[in-house]
Specification:
five-stranded mixed β-sheet; OB fold (Dihydrolipoamide Acetyltransferase, E2P); single chain; 38% strand; alpha+beta; elongated
């Protein structure tokens, strides 16, 4: 009979544990921590631009595309590759690596276009490679450790961590408010 009592005891303990999980699940709010403070989680698209590993907020990216052919625009700076027809809409295609680093991005099978918008106009940013989506927590970021002479210095303010991975957050608002970026006319 004691064996039966010990089985009942362990069954009861397991049942109570499941009830506890159910209660905790009922009151859990995604994006909150156990002490009910917001954890400020956000999702980002992670990618490579040259040797830099970058991330930008996923809500700023409408789509990730294989680079389409672009028709050159006369009088534009060389980093503006041209206009592309993407499902009936004209998109300005910008070689982000060329804009940032001054050298054209080689188009490979890994190259992608981050489709975003500038003042409601479609813009495609050519990058070297997309790694995927990551979830970031504000508390796990720190100030950017880019060198003072880094070409990304004005576009990146912080470094993000996910496990052992490190990314620099590319701030599209900073890019899109840059006078050099806004003035795509060649001199």
């Amino acid at each position: 009979m004691t064996n039966s009592n010990s089985n009942n005891s362990s069954d009861r303990a397991a049942f109570l544990k499941l009830q506890n999980y159910a209660r905790r699940g009922d009151v859990f709010t995604p994006g909150s921590t156990s002490n009910s403070k917001l954890s400020h989680e956000w999702s980002g698209v992670t990618f490579r631009l040259g040797e830099s590993r970058l991330a930008c907020k996923i809500d700023r990216i409408q789509e990730i595309l294989t680079p389409p052919g672009a028709t050159p625009v006369p009088g534009a700076k060389p980093w503006i590759l041209g206009l592309a027809n993407v499902r009936g809409s004209l998109m300005t295609v910008v070689d982000l690596g060329w804009f940032v680093n001054g050298t054209p991005t080689p188009v490979t099978v890994h190259s992608r276009l981050l489709s975003t918008s500038l003042q409601k106009a479609p813009v495609g940013l050519l990058i070297d490679e997309v790694f995927g989506q990551r979830h970031f927590v504000e508390g796990e970021s720190s100030d950017s450790d880019l060198e003072e002479d880094s070409t990304l210095k004005d576009l990146v303010q912080r470094k993000l961590r996910v496990g052992k991975e490190e990314w620099h957050e590319l701030e599209l608002d900073r890019l899109f408010s840059s006078q050099e970026f806004l003035n795509g006319a060649a001199n």
